[in-house]
Amino acid sequence: MSTGVEGSSLTQLLTERPVRTGRLRRGYRVLDVDLFFDHLGSAAPAGRVASAQVRAVGFGSQFGGYDVADTDDLLTDIEDALARRERSHALAAGDQRQFSDRRASLAAAVSGRLGHPRGERFPRARGLSRGYRPGDVDDLCDLLVRHYRGEVRLSADDVRGALFRPRRGRRGYREAPVDAFLDRVVELMVTFER
To answer: Where are the alpha helices (DSSP H) in 16-148?
Structure first.
């Protein structure tokens, strides 16, 4: 169970719900969001949910659903609170080696990808499938390189909020590898960069 200021913050976050959109606007499907928040409410206090599970969740959409931005903001706060708890539990349990190993693994994966030249950092989309515009992705990667050199300061929210224009086929980077890389960057930032 969570303790201290971070714990009460997580407890408070788990009781909140996002606002609903108007009847004529699309938002996240109410049932999907309610089920996930109910799951979080019972699993998080018992330590049975990880920050990565919050980061990976997806919802359907409906008219009059939960506001997308408000829901995403609340989930981001919950993810960050869980990541802080995971870090403090690992360090308090004397699990420094596992903690350090995970950090080293994430850092190696991130720096390895960032070490590739622009235009070659991710595999290209196939056929007519939709991908991300390489220049947009590479611009963020260049900022991340500068972040890790200490030249600029980025937050996990900066990475989460990155938008990439679409490109079809070989003109774009495949979305799945880019998304997986960004998940690793966010995990590295929220769990290990404190």
So the answer is: 30-43, 51-56, 68-92, 96-114, 134-148
